[in-house]
């Protein structure tokens, strides 16, 4: 931080006339926030009743919602190795425009981030970009190959927020057992993409639709089988475990039970799993090819229920940018993934508008809960905390147009999707990194 | 209704997108979504070519000046030859292209290939590809008619049509027949196309296979699944055998060829459970002694296998005829010719 001097003359900013939303404290009230430099100084309902401090610049929020900046704990940012699909800079602009102030990026890059130098590269690129905060996971095993444990302690010291092999499950039980046990010394979290790799060999959800299309199917059970085994290992080791991208109702139930039994287990899902079903694959639509695959209607409803009762802790973008060359292919040959940063918040808000989730509960899964899993000081409107905030209009109707994404890739199956709720300003460490202008700003 | 539900409803299904009854057939990508009337119309047209193929002079000039490209990304002898003959007998210029799928994966993409061929203004592309959905993807990028000659494990519509024509000629009517499709259903595009066609025309369709070769949810296509071959064959009018597709199999589906033949190979013993005059069919190429006993396959009284090959040419002539009649004329297709068109 010492490399960057405070911006001159902008020490204090008073955000007035806002609907304050802080899920961590349960606050939902009219009021204001006073920011000094990169920190929040005061938050409160009656904060500026007697006027804005004379030395503060005023931002009138005009009754819009002021909330903690979103924390996206699962995204692929293209660097290093796939800069033609995304860079930390392009992803940063995309994230900022959608209210995301912190991103945790996956280590399954090229080369894999499995040493301190890799972490430092990401940190340096993020500093240079100076947009959103970028946290990095370290690979759990070298090369994400599922065999040899990485230097979990050294990587943790260097800033790794958790450990995962990205989109691969660690299949070897002994390896995962040792990783969970060893990592507990550093109280870091291990994230697993829970799909039993020898069962999950298909390119879409197993069932009648895959059969009709003549595509190989991955059974929903592949998720539960991997998860149940992992939960036993958590029980054995006392490790801290996070299941990524829960897509089935059976897995939600298994996590629910594990939490009830006191295991240190958390999980997340992404908007496509509570928004779409396998029907989105329709006629070999490769934009709907994701891993784990989109499931059936009952699974989708179970994911919504899991979010509503708090079994699912976090909502992630699962941002996985793919260019046309990777998607305009026969379904089996096409890459997995959806470019998710710019639709994370809008798609999630659909649940609130449909009455399935309270706004504060949704925000919890997008702010302090993922921050807590990663052990970061983020996701709260709290005095003394970093001034990472968003201002949004929950009612503003707009239409999703992937072609207008700021990120490099436009692979999203949400073309012409009617969205409601839009971010108008994004603030990171007190700096406004995105503000909606009357005419949309050119990238 | 939440936006999610609304959008889900908006996603077009294959059937909705292509069935459009009354609209002329632009491509033949699959049987699924076709109406009974459309199928019968194609069968009737094919029927008219059966006699042509049996005559001494088999050629006409119906497609004179038209270009048909057989684009095969998988090796094929009988289907490619059948399409080639069909095109030539209708007077078209027929070009055969065999391209290795591996080169599509690493070099020029499928879409590049489609665009390249499209620029040469063919009238019909006949395409076979090892990936399900690949022919449809290609069809979206060209402005000529496309015939699916088999895509992965998805569809093989002309095979289903020739099977139906064979059955219709032998039995007169498809509605009401009990048809057993037996063998490697999981990997078979022939099975899927036949299931769609036969159920649409009112036959009762059963599939017979070991559980490892029955794809999940197959019943949702309107068939009854059997894992016991004798039970599945009981009282059937038609027995369609499928080739065991070892090339599409990763991992162990059946323990051995010998065991497979013992329980799922068609021999007289198992055949005895079907109707006494049950018709035996196989799309070829046959693995004799794997899914079908040689003697059964060659049984002149029961086997329609050679007739299927004969009907194949007639069906492909009928399909080429139907697609080119209804396609816009050359003058109104590609951009280069736009000035000539109306």
TrEMBL record, chain A:
What are the EC numbers?
3.5.2.3
Source organism phylogeny: Bacteria, Pseudomonadati, Pseudomonadota, Alphaproteobacteria, Rhodospirillales
Statement: the UniProt record of this protein carries the keyword Transmembrane: no
One Pfam family assigned to this protein is: DHOase
Name this protein carries in UniProt = Dihydroorotase
Task: Please state every residue range assigned to the domain named Dihydroorotase catalytic.
Answer: 66-248
Kindly give the InterPro entries that the UniProt entry links to this protein. DHOase, DHOase/Allantoinase_Hydrolase, DHOase_cat, Metal-dep_hydrolase_composite, Metal_Hydrolase
Write the record's keywords in alphabetical order, separated by commas.
Hydrolase, Pyrimidine biosynthesis
Query: Which molecular function terms from Gene Ontology are attached?
Result: dihydroorotase activity
Say which domain of life the source belongs to: Bacteria
Q: Which Gene3D superfamilies match?
A: Metal-dependent hydrolases, Urease, subunit C, domain 1
Q: rRNA-binding: is it a keyword of this entry?
A: no
The enzyme class is: hydrolase
UniProtKB/TrEMBL annotation, chain B:
Where does this protein act, in terms of pathway?
Answer: Pyrimidine metabolism; UMP biosynthesis via de novo pathway; (S)-dihydroorotate from bicarbonate: step 2/3
Q: Which UniProt keyword terms apply here?
A: Pyrimidine biosynthesis, Transferase
Question: Which residues does carbamoyl phosphate bind?
Answer: 78-79, 128, 156, 159, 284-285
EC no. given is 2.1.3.2
Source taxon at top rank: Bacteria
Pfam families from the entry? OTCace, OTCace_N
List each copy of the Aspartate/ornithine carbamoyltransferase Asp/Orn-binding domain by range.
176-322
Spell out the InterPro entries in the cross-references.
Asp/Orn_carbamoyltranf_P-bd, Asp/Orn_carbamoylTrfase, Asp/Orn_carbamoylTrfase_sf, Asp_carbamoyltransf, Asp_carbamoyltransf_Asp/Orn-bd
Q: What are the Aspartate/ornithine carbamoyltransferase carbamoyl-P binding domain coordinates in residue numbering?
A: 26-168
UniProt similarity note = Belongs to the aspartate/ornithine carbamoyltransferase superfamily. ATCase family.
In its UniProt entry, what is this protein called? Aspartate carbamoyltransferase
Encoding gene (name) = pyrB
């Amino acid at each position: 931080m010492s490399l960057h001097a405070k911006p001159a003359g902008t020490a204090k900013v008073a955000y007035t006339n806002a609907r304050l939303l802080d899920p961590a404290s349960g606050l939902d009230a009219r009021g204001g926030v006073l920011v000094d430099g990169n920190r929040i100084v005061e938050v409160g309902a009656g904060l500026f009743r007697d006027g804005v401090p004379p030395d503060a610049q005023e931002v009138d929020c005009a009754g819009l919602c002021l909330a903690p900046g979103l924390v996206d704990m699962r995204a692929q940012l293209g660097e290093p190795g796939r800069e033609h699909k995304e860079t930390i800079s392009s992803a940063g602009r995309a994230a900022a425009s959608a209210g995301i102030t912190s991103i945790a990026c996956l280590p399954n890059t090229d080369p894999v981030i499995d040493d301190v130098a890799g972490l430092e590269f990401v940190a340096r690129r993020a500093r240079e970009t100076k947009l959103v905060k970028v946290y990095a996971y370290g690979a759990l095993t070298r090369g994400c190959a599922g065999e040899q444990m990485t230097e979990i302690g050294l990587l943790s010291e260097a800033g790794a927020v958790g450990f995962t092999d990205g989109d691969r499950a660690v299949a070897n039980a002994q390896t995962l057992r040792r990783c969970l046990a060893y990592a507990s010394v550093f109280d870091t979290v291990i994230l697993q993409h829970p799909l039993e790799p020898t069962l999950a060999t298909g390119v879409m959800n197993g069932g009648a639709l895959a059969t009709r299309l003549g595509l190989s199917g991955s059974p929903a059970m592949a998720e539960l089988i991997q998860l149940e085994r992992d939960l036993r290992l958590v029980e054995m080791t006392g490790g801290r475990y996070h299941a990524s991208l829960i897509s089935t109702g059976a897995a939600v139930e298994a996590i629910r039970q594990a939490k009830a039994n006191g295991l240190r287990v958390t999980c997340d899902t992404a908007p496509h799993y509570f928004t779409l079903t396998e029907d989105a694959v329709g006629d070999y639509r490769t934009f709907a090819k994701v891993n784990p695959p989109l499931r059936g209607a009952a699974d989708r409803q179970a994911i919504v229920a899991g979010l509503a009762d708090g079994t699912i802790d976090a909502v992630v973008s699962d941002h996985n940018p793919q260019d046309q060359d990777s998607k305009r292919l026969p379904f089996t040959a096409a890459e997995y993934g959806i470019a998710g940063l710019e639709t994370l918040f809008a798609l999630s808000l659909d649940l609130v508008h449909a009455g399935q989730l309270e706004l504060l509960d949704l925000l919890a899964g997008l702010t302090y809960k993922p921050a807590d899993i990663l052990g970061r000081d983020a996701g709260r409107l709290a005095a003394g905390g970093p001034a990472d905030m968003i201002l949004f209009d929950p009612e503003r109707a707009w239409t999703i147009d992937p072609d207008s994404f700021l990120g490099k890739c436009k692979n999203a199956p949400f073309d012409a999707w009617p969205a409601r709720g839009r971010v108008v300003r994004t603030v990171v460490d007190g700096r406004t990194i995105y503000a909606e202008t009357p005419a949309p700003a050119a990238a | 209704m939440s936006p999610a539900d609304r959008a889900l409803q908006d996603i077009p299904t294959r059937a909705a997108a292509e069935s459009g009854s009354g609209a002329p057939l632009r491509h033949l990508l699959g049987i699924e979504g076709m109406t009974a009337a459309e199928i019968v119309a194609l069968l009737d047209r094919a029927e008219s070519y059966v006699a042509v193929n049996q005559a001494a002079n088999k050629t006409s000039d119906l497609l004179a000046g038209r270009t048909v490209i057989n684009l095969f990304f998988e090796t094929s002898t009988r289907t490619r030859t059948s399409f080639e003959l069909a095109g030539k007998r209708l007077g078209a210029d027929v070009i055969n292209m065999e391209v290795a799928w591996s080169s599509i994966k690493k070099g020029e993409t499928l879409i590049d290939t489609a665009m390249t061929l499209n620029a040469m203004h063919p009238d019909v592309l006949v395409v076979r590809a090892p990936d399900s959905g690949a022919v449809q993807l290609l069809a979206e990028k060209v402005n000529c008619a496309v015939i699916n000659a088999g895509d992965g494990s998805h569809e093989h519509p002309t095979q289903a049509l020739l099977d139906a024509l064979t059955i219709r000629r032998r039995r007169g009517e498809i509605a009401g027949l009990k048809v057993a499709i037996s063998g490697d259903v999981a990997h078979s595009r022939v099975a899927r196309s036949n299931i769609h066609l036969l159920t649409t025309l009112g036959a009762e369709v059963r599939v017979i296979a070991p559980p490892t070769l029955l794809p999940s949810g197959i019943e949702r296509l309107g068939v009854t699944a059997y894992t016991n071959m004798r039970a599945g064959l009981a009282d059937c009018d038609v027995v369609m055998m499928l080739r065991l597709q070892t090339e599409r199999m990763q991992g162990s589906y059946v323990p051995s060829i010998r065991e497979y033949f013992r329980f799922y190979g068609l021999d007289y013993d198992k055949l005895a459970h079907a109707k006494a005059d049950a018709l035996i069919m196989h799309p070829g190429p046959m693995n004799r002694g794997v899914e079908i006993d040689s003697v059964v396959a060659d049984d002149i009284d029961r086997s329609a296998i050679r007739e299927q090959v004969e009907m194949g040419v007639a069906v492909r002539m009928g399909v080429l005829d139907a697609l080119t009649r209804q396609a816009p004329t050359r003058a109104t297709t590609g951009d280069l010719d736009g000035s000539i068109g109306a």
